[in-house]
Amino acid sequence: MGTVDVANKDVTASLAEKKPKVVFVLGGPGSGKGTQCANIVEHFHYTHLSAGDLLRAEIKSGSENGTMIQNMIKEGKIVPSEVTIKLLQKAMLESGNDKFLIDGFPRNEENRAAFEAVTKIEPEFVLFFNCPEEEMERRLLSRNQGREDDNIETIRKRFKVFLESSIPVIEYYKAKGKVREIDAAKPVGEVFEAVKVVFTPKDEKVTA
Fold it and tell me: Which of 36, 77, 111, 141: disulfide with 106, CB 3.0–4.6 Å?
């Protein structure tokens, strides 16, 4: 076990030295955050890390860690924060970049506290795509007619879970003046205009 701890400490120390700029991206299902993350990557050269994608990739790799994650998900358990955080740290180091969008994490207050405790990194800010439930429902239902998990009941349940778990995280960072809230109900182009303002340094003009 000792060597694993040493390896984790090295990762944390190497990352801390880079002083990476981390932005947490939060928004409910159908808020359009995936599309906006792609725009930010293209326009502002951030690396986009999705906690869900990293977990899925780890499962696919067939590693011991991946098997453990798969079993937990199968049993309906929540994957421990530390597991997700280690995957995020590894991806951050391997990317060679120092600017990151972390998408869909922290999902709850425990994730948030663990991320700061383990990585010693506090996010620059939280980008919160706020979209009314009715608009999210409309988008998800029209977008995915064939998808099993996109019936109205499931959508409402997912939205409720998002609100209950993520709102405390948003409130925590709001108290620190670190939340940049975007009205995600507008058309994609208008939403990105608002996003650009958030990511453009104050002394620079927003460019098209």
Answer: 111
CA 31 to mean position of chain CA atoms:
13
What are 110-144's pLDDT values in tens digits? 999 999 999 999 999 999 999 888 888 888 877 66
pTM for the complete prediction?
0.85
Evaluate whether 42 touches 199 at the Cβ level (below 8 Å).
no
Main-chain phi, psi angles of 25, to 5 degrees:
-115, 115
User: 3-state class of 117 per DSSP?
Assistant: helix
C-alpha 30/C-alpha 49 separation (Å) is 18
**Binding site per annotation, positions:** 30-35, 56, 77-79, 104-107, 111, 143, 147, 158, 186
Known binding-site positions for ATP: 30-35, 143, 186
96-110 pLDDT per residue, tens: 999 999 998 998 999
